[in-house]
Amino acid sequence: MERDGIQAAKLEGEDEVSHLALDIGGSLIKMVYFSSNSICSGDDQKNGFLKDGIDTVNYTVLSGRLHFLKFETTKISECMKFISTKRLQEYGDKDDEASASDKNIIKATGGGAFKFADLFKEKLGIILDKVDEMSCLVAGANFLLKAVHQEAFTYLDGQKDYVQIDHKDLYPYLLVNVGSGVSMIKVDGDNEFERVSGTSVGGGTFWGLGKLLTKCQSFDELLELSRQGNNRVIDMLVGDIYGGMDYSKIGLTSTAIASSFGKAVSENKELEDYRAEDVARSLLRMISNNIGQIAYLNALRFGLKRIFFGGFFIRGHAYTMDTLSVAVNFWSKGEAKALFLRHEGFLGALGAFMSYEKKGFTDITHQFMEQNSSVPKSSFCSEDGSESSTRAHVRDNECIECRVQVRN
């Protein structure tokens, strides 16, 4: 079927698929697409699901799923194979004036949208319509915070607590997107934002140094290795300097890190004498502490109390979140909070997805998900459509149940 705001095609044995969007970063490709499984009843469309002033005759409400997937950029061929197998290249915008082989226009953001544009066109006949990266990050974050039930949460001392977001009091906030590097964005409203700071010490630093020091071959392998490590073997603590005592005068406990990797200076050891697990843990702690401190200093600069962390560096990793939370809590003396997003890595892809020109498609998504907030909104599914029993963190090939409105 084809509609003005959305094109959908029925795959044999599957839902109707539509509107693919990509966020192609330096190390990861993030993908979002919508698949519909039914058209909502006329009663549903009349009972407040449509925006005021929208004629139900000209619009249809679809029930379905937003799908989230990621691929390593080094394995871009796997991403292209998935797109081709699912025929997702057919579900973007259409350009009637283009040649037959160049009609599939897909929204994309990130530096890779420029770097790999020719490859996508050559292999899949896709034209990547490039959308500004910062705009997509902010649009994706605003959408999740307004529309998805139990999206934001705090994590401290192993305790995960969901935070209810008052939409009238959402702005301003600081968005810290931790990808290969780190961008810190002050968000003042819909389409109102400013990149106020950043650092080159981010996820790419963790992965790059970790690969050199531990020989790990993937980010996830390095994260898993860090779970088993003890950073105190390598980090110099305050207690190491003060004979096991606190430096209470300035508020430092004996277990506070005085110098990351500092013990390696005073010990007569080589790299191979240290466990890879301990090296990974120390590295993760160093980078997370640094990001947390810089984030708080920028929040302080603008008087912001809420700091939302996004990007695929975190990946629901308990130790990373705890370290970021401790850093923000310590430097702010408990006045500011680190908040995390369940769909942290897909902000850019979601923003690109929402940038399709037909506004009826995206605007109504907010309304549907908000109006149905009394029931869980994130029923996770595997890519084959079956329900997943794991709800703690967003993993690969998961989706959100939702409804969208499209023009007939």
Helix segment tally:
13
Tell me how many strands there are.
17
Mean pLDDT: 79
Helical/strand content category: alpha+beta
- Estimated radius of gyration: 23 Å
Low-confidence region ranges: 1-13, 45-54, 98-102, 358-397
Order of helical and strand elements? EEEHEHEEHHEHEEEEEHHEHEHHEHEHHE
The rounded distance between the terminal residues' Cα atoms is 10 Å
Overall geometry comes to globular
The biggest beta sheet reads: 8 strands, mixed
Helix content, binned percent? 25-40%
Q: Strand share of the residues?
A: 25-35%
Structural description of this entry:
With 408 residues, the protein is of the alpha+beta class. The protein contains 13 helices and 17 strands. Helix 7 (219-227) packs across helix 10. The termini are close together.
What is the structure about, briefly put?
This protein is an alpha+beta fold and 408 residues long. The protein has helices at 42-49, 76-86, 112-115, 117-124, 133-147, 203-214, 219-227, 238-241, 263-266, 276-302, 318-332, 347-353, 359-371; strands at residues 9-10, 16-24, 28-39, 59-72, 93-94, 104-109, 126-130, 152-156, 159-162, 173-178, 182-189, 192-199, 236-237, 257-259, 306-310, 337-341, 398-407. Strand 8 (152-156) and strand 9 (159-162) form a beta hairpin.
